[in-house]
UniProtKB/TrEMBL annotation:
Source lineage: Eukaryota, Metazoa, Chordata, Craniata, Vertebrata
GO biological process entries: mitochondrial protein processing; mitochondrial proton-transporting ATP synthase complex assembly
Full protein name: Mitochondrial inner membrane protease ATP23
Superkingdom per UniProt: Eukaryota
Hydrolase as UniProt keyword: yes
Amino acid sequence: MEEGKADSAPASEKKGVEEEEEDFGYRLFPDRNKKPQSFLVRSLFTFHNKCQLMLRLTLETNPYARLLLEALKQSGCTVFNDRHFSCENCDGCVSGGFDAATSQIVLCQNNIRQQSHMNRVVTHELIHAFDHCRAHVDWFKNVKHLACSEIRAANLSGDCTLMNEIARFKFGLKGHHQTCVRDRAIRSILAVRKVSKETAEKAVDEVFDACFNDLEPFGRIPHSKADAKRAYRDFQNRDRYNANL
């Protein structure tokens, strides 16, 4: 989980009493339950305009995002900017989330202020979207499924790069990347599920090895934008090779 970020489905499929009894983190995304505002009204808010501009730049230029968009398309889940992304105001502690009920990525326009942050959030959530597309993920009831996708997102999105960890005043040598991935996956689960820390840790530990080593669609852990560019080129060449078989 990226600091100040929840990464699970923010929209509820439960109503009435069930909605009160079960908390899937929807409280963090209050705009999900509001009537959509008109384009004219939304255009008056600077945060919304800035969010849309940063999103467009990420989708057009960021190698992490571009690879994931191609992988989603090839998996039968083409992503459309105006359909699958929504800039909204969120709770002060989160930056984004994946709404499994609508297959939509929520970007917290009041909390994402820098392009680098937008790049990370979009990449993180696109990994969840990719997992949602290629597998039968039970986001709401199976904490192991959620843990696996959180491990993959933390591992492959750049959340745990050296520079990001230094910015968090966290330092380590051997095995620090794995430690970061584990810690952030646990934090993500705790942010959006009412489970104990022990339950979250147990779920992460039980699936960690398999999910940490699942590097699709990157084929490698992209520790930097340069790594992501190489992974993107490899992905494109892999597709060309397969097309000629």
